[in-house]
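Worked problem 6 (solution included).
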Amino acid sequence: MKQYLFIVSLVFGLLFSCNSNKNISAKDEQPKLESDTVRIANDEIEYEVIIIDPAFTNWFNSNARPRSFYSQSFLEARNIVWVTEWNRRVIMPSQYNPNLYEMQINYNASTNYGFEVNYMIYNYLTFFQLHYNQRLGGYTPRR
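Solution. The predicted structure is:
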């Protein structure tokens, strides 16, 4: 059974292992996205992240830190806290804007999604909190 992890935000028309000895390549220094729809997939474990938010691409290209800056465990720790709060807000549409929190994120802390999936989720949730002035708790998002 193929499982999917979706992060979708439609707002204003659209719903919405860092090793200390790792060498930083030119590719790591400046991550770039070229589309308003971002799909990151880990085909080995059959998970994917789909992000649809026009502002995210520009934010990512100008603000995302290099992949080598983070470890997978750092990203997982942030994602667990932020996704848990996100999902709590999805089920409380009378308290939180249902246009911002439209669907739950199927993120299981015991599943190894791989670095790239965690990296994109982390960056999207950082962008989301900064861009939409939301705080998902636990950790303050960094620019």
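Discussion: The chain is about 35% helix and 10% strand.
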